[in-house]
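Support case: aspartic acid complex. Customer-provided input:
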Amino acid sequence: MRKLLFCLFFLPLTALAQSSPIAFAIHGGAGFVDSNKVSPELRARYRMVLTEASLTGYGILKRGGTSLEAVEAAIRILEDSPLFNAGRGAVTNAEGFCELDASIMDGSKRQAGAVAGLTTVKNPITLARLVKDSTTHVLLMGEGAERFASQMPVERVERSYFLERDPDKKGEVPAWLHDAKFGTVGAVALDRSGNLAAGTSTGGMRGKKFGRVGDVPLIGAGTYAENGVVAVSCTGHGEFFIRQVAAYEVAALMKYKGMTVQQAADAVIYQQLKPIGGSGGLIALDAQGNIHLPFNSGSMFRASVDNAGKITVGIW
Ligand code: ASP
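Agent response - structure generated as follows:
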């Protein structure tokens, strides 16, 4: 009898859990990349890295890994590429060096970790995750974050490692990219257990002054994840995304107004941010695996993989 009851009540739940969808999406920054200036070779390089990062994230989910693992792994690939404004390719501040910001959020526990103003950490997204996992804090900044990094198993680099895009150095990217506006990277994931996660990593805005911190390490502004609702990672002019609490606003519109992920993300990008001059975009993924990637700027590097494994890559 007990066995029968077990089968009746628990097996359907197990079956349901196994059939729950997985989905994954990334962005490599919104901006105003002129399609005429992007050679076929460069376009292919972008497609290659976006494809590698999104299939890495999706592969982790497919093998039963967590959404957090998928987000971190994909962002590390984008951080290691010189093509994006994050990690290696980060833009420089007004004083000519790089200060990096990142954040990650676990939608299942509503836990988050973030770092701001890093100068020697190769993969800021990993340190952000360690803030979440190894401290009782959410956001560490500047010198303190660097000291924390010294106690953690993260790779450190010389400041010059990040200067690949500096016009004075022989970079691996064409000169016009130095002027490209944004370029932050981010990822959102839904795993087999229905857990949503989001992460974002950036060098911030080129020429930023006085220890400026953008939306990326601010939970709710540049990054947000909540199980049962949505995971969001933003890119664009950070000051506007902070004022609009953009990532959380997508979740709020879904929760309190009953909007779909598409309606909510479009409302934030086109109706709220655009009229006040907030250019940029976001990637959003709901609890059913629906993906929406709107942007109000000329371009947004992006890729997504749906439950069936179908990959879509785009720039314009
Ligand atoms: N949102 C980032 C910031 O303001 C920039 C970007 O998305 O490229 O720091």
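The helical segments are 2-19, 40-62, 67-80, 124-134, 142-150, 238-243, 246-257, 261-273.

Case will auto-close in a few days if no follow-up is received.
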